[in-house]
Design goal:
It is built from twelve helices and ten strands. It has helices at residues 34-43, 59-62, 71-74, 89-95, 127-132, 149-166, 184-196, 211-217, 232-244, 254-257, 262-275, 279-293, and strands at 51-55, 84-87, 103-107, 109-110, 122-123, 137-142, 170-174, 201-204, 222-225, 249-252. The strands form two sheets. Strands 1-2-3-6-7-8-9-10 form an eight-stranded parallel barrel, surrounded by six helices. Helix 7 (184-196) packs parallel to helix 8, helix 9 (232-244) packs antiparallel against helix 12 and helix 11 (262-275) packs antiparallel against helix 12.
């Protein structure tokens, strides 16, 4: 037990310095609990306020698509260059080293494959397993306007409720079916629904016309999906425009792991997202790094 008589008496209380009550740097996140803010700060860089997520969860409905045949061989070497890894629990447990320090966003919905109606999804992972895996957020697919819209929206709200209970953010992923219109009006609707029902941040697609209205109308951060494989300069241009028009980051998969030089591409994307680099300069960086590898 400490010797009370021998302890130093307190003498400096800095009465002239008011205690700071700082606002949290992420859009719409100031009223969240400390634990949830801490998890979000591991996803979104506190300096830039942005994130570069590496999406490798495609196998949950596509199987071993090109570039994801062996996550341990093709993806693990890329992890140090991303801010966040978006992945399924099976792949995380079996192929990602446990000493990985990057933030993990866990895919927690499923139930359909590419051979069936994709919108027929539901929650497929319990939040207790997400906590057990020490992840920073849970990704839930939401199919606004689809055949199974109702169940996917309510699935998201159930996960939001569980996340609030345990301090775990929910990422709502707005999906588009084969016949859905991909325009600003649709994405304003889909992202706003997700945010209004409690998602802490939203993943959606970039569109060249009116994307700034999508980010402006959504009260929480938006990250964009990389989508299908594009030429590197086109993918960098898409990322640049999205950031300039209000996105808080990108979640790229195929445009990274299907690139001829994935690490170089990931570094180029980081330059666009975190350093506000132009697509042209970022592509120069990619080309230089690619040639150095050879």
């Amino acid at each position: 037990m400490a010797d009370i008589d021998g302890s130093n008496a307190p003498k400096e209380f800095y009465t002239d310095i008011p205690q700071k009550s700082e606002n949290f740097y992420l859009k719409g996140s100031n009223s969240l609990d400390w634990g949830m803010k801490n998890r979000l700060s591991r996803i979104f860089n506190p300096v830039s306020g942005k994130t570069v997520m590496l999406a490798v969860d495609h196998g949950y409905f596509l199987g071993p698509t090109a570039g994801l045949e062996r996550i341990d061989v093709n993806i693990v070497p890329l992890i140090p260059y991303a801010d966040t890894l978006m992945i399924t629990r099976g792949a995380l447990r079996t192929m990602v080293p446990a000493d990985t320090q990057k933030a993990i966003v866990l895919r927690v919905t499923g139930g359909a494959s590419i051979l069936t109606e994709l919108s027929n999804e539901d929650l497929a992972v319990d939040i207790e397993d997400a906590i057990r895996l020490n992840v920073c957020a849970m990704a839930v697919q939401v199919y606004v306007g689809s055949e199974h819209e109702h169940q996917t929206i309510l699935g998201m709200t159930r996960m939001v409720d569980m996340g609030l209970r345990y301090g775990m953010p929910t990422l709502a992923v707005t999906a588009v079916g084969k016949d859905m219109v991909r325009d600003a009006k649709y994405f304003r609707l889909a992202t706003r629904i997700c945010a209004e029902l409690g998602a802490q941040y939203v993943k959606t697609y970039y569109i060249p016309e009116g994307f700034e209205t999508v980010t402006a109308a959504c009260p929480v951060p938006i990250v964009i999906a990389g989508g299908k494989k594009l030429p590197e300069i086109d993918a960098l241009t898409m990322a640049y425009r999205a950031i300039q028009e209000g996105a808080a980051g990108v979640d790229m998969g195929r445009n990274i792991f299907q690139s001829e030089a994935p690490i170089a591409m990931l570094k180029a994307v980081r330059a666009v997202v975190h350093e506000n680099e132009t697509p042209e300069r970022a592509f120069e960086l990619y080309s230089t790094l690619k040639s150095e590898k050879k």
